[in-house]
Amino acid sequence: MANDSGPPELVLFDLGGVLCRFEPDRRAAELAAAIGVTEDEIHALVFASGFDQECDLGIHSETAILERFRRLGFPGDRDELRRAWAKAFIPDRAVIDLAIALRSEGVVVATLSDNGPVLLAAIESVVTPSAIDEHVFSCMLGATKPDPAAFLAALEFLDARPQQTFFVDDNPVNVLSARRLGIRGEQANKAADVESALRSVGLLRAH
Prior knowledge:
Blueprint: E1 10-13, E2 20-22, H1 24-35, H2 39-48, H3 51-56, H4 62-72, H5 78-86, E3 89-91, H6 93-104, E4 108-113, H7 117-122, E5 134-137, H8 138-141, H9 148-158, E6 165-169, H10 172-180, E7 184-187, H11 191-200
Parallel strand pairs: 1-4, 1-6, 4-5, 6-7
Antiparallel strand pairs: 2-3
């Protein structure tokens, strides 16, 4: 294990806002069209109602989520729900290339994302599998960022130490929470800023 002042051995990337652009209206439009309601109704039924937050916390299984949507009138199967859910996430190819480069240098790369089991099941259709060693979602942890419990559970899952971890998120509140636990972290949401942040801690030396 390298000393704590050296380059991190683990990089945690936020998903929506760093590895991907997050455009939830695309998902709402897809679901609304399938069910035959307005996008506003989707927002009210799924997101404003708190149901989505419960999914992020792992309260509802993917099967339970599909059953709820079928009660709302969703005609599709599990795969079609996954495709609709994934519509909100548009991969940032430049950031994903940085993740691939990190892995080529022996760095462990993982996501740390506030998301539920539907997206987790669909994630390899969103993010190139070769870019990520592990996807760590809040639904696996029972906590969402910036709750310290989410970071601690993620580190335990990944068998990692705070001092050897670097966290990149577009939300400064999440970065501050990570830093309070001894995790190095930076706010970034564009590829150039992500690259700069990684280089600032001694990563990407071969690129």
